[in-house]
Amino acid sequence: MPATADADTPEARLRAHGVQVTAQRLAIMRAVGSSPHATADDVAEEVRTLIGSISRQAVYDSLGVLVDKGLIRRIQPAGSAARYEDRVGDNHHHLICRGCGKTFDIDCAVGEVPCLTADDDHGFAIDEAEVIYWGHCPSCRHH
């Protein structure tokens, strides 16, 4: 296998970010990768199918480390549990159905951008805008 392919493995990403490689962390990264926008409980359930027993606290602790190191992203829509995804390094947004909770990635907003440009940055060097679009998906609109 070419070296470039190896660089994108969960093991290589953990090492590149200075995180100790453990079976639990690998399983958590795989679970987040296979189920974007999963809650910590969803991740724990998936990890248990991959490696067996893991405590809820171990999942939360590992998710925290992975978020802190920039390996996964934590989002917390209003009124919802925190959700995790492995799409990092860009400034994408989310579309969430108010009915079923299904969540979709949306690339950066296009068109007029006053809502994405702070009217007063208070001296901050702004590097991210978090936008969540809410609505009802086609299935929920027809119920």
Could you give a short description of this structure?
The protein has 143 residues and is of the alpha+beta class. It contains six helices and six strands.
How would you describe what is shown here?
This protein is of the alpha+beta class and 143 residues long. It has helices at residues 3-6, 10-16, 23-34, 40-51, 56-68, 138-141; strands at residues 38-39, 73-75, 83-85, 93-97, 103-106, 132-135. The strands form two sheets. It has a three-stranded antiparallel sheet with strand order 1-3-2. Strand 4 (93-97) and strand 5 form a beta hairpin. Helix 4 (40-51) packs across helix 5 (56-68). The radius of gyration is 17 Å and the shape is globular.
Task: Return the string of H and E elements.
Answer: HHHEHHEEEEEH
Instruction: Tell me roughly what share of residues is in helical segments.
Output: 25-40%
Q: How much strand content do the residues show?
A: 5-15%
Mean pLDDT: 87
The total count of strands amounts to: 6
Radius of gyration: 17 Å
> How many helical elements?
6
What oligomerization state is this entry in?
single chain
Distance between the termini: 49 Å
- Low-pLDDT parts are none
* Shape estimate: globular
